[in-house]
Design a protein that fits this description.
Distance between the termini: 30 Å
Strand order of the largest sheet: 1-2-3-4-5-6-7-8-9-10-11-12
Shape: globular
Radius of gyration: 14 Å
Largest sheet: 12 strands, antiparallel, barrel
Helix content: 10-25%
Structural class: mainly beta
CATH class: Mainly Beta
CATH architecture: Beta Barrel
Order of helices and strands: EEEEEEEEEEEEH
Number of strands: 12
Length: 156
Amino acid sequence: MTSYHLRRDFGSLTGECHVTDAEGQERFRIEGRWLKGGVTFTDLVSGDVLVLAPILRSMNATWEVRRNDTVIAMFEGSGWFLPSFTLDVPGPNDYTIEQKKVFGLDAVVTRPVEGRVARIHQPSGRSGDLQIDVEPGQDEVFIAACAAILMRIRSQ
């Protein structure tokens, strides 16, 4: 399992986030404005770039995730008390993010075929941070980017 640490910079007017690996090295760079065209989410190792863009006309929390100018997923949420999110990807194997706690954040990311593929949670005593634990063989860039969207939605 690979772990990442996502920390929101509360002093930033743009809501910037930093994602580091287990050794504390910056792994993903997040740049741009969340509500003005979205942000780019760059893997500093592979160079893979995702664009995360909100769909403002939707009643639910809806985000478009693009890779190489192609929409690879729609991130849609519903519910207020214990929200759940669907990451609609091409084909039948969509991701589901289900929150397991009322207070704080402890969510499990699952897929119908693989089962649990990741966990996104707040480390104790660190309200502005998220820990992202990704199972081997999963799209780490995509899951970490979705964790950043989840953090953004919860901070609004």
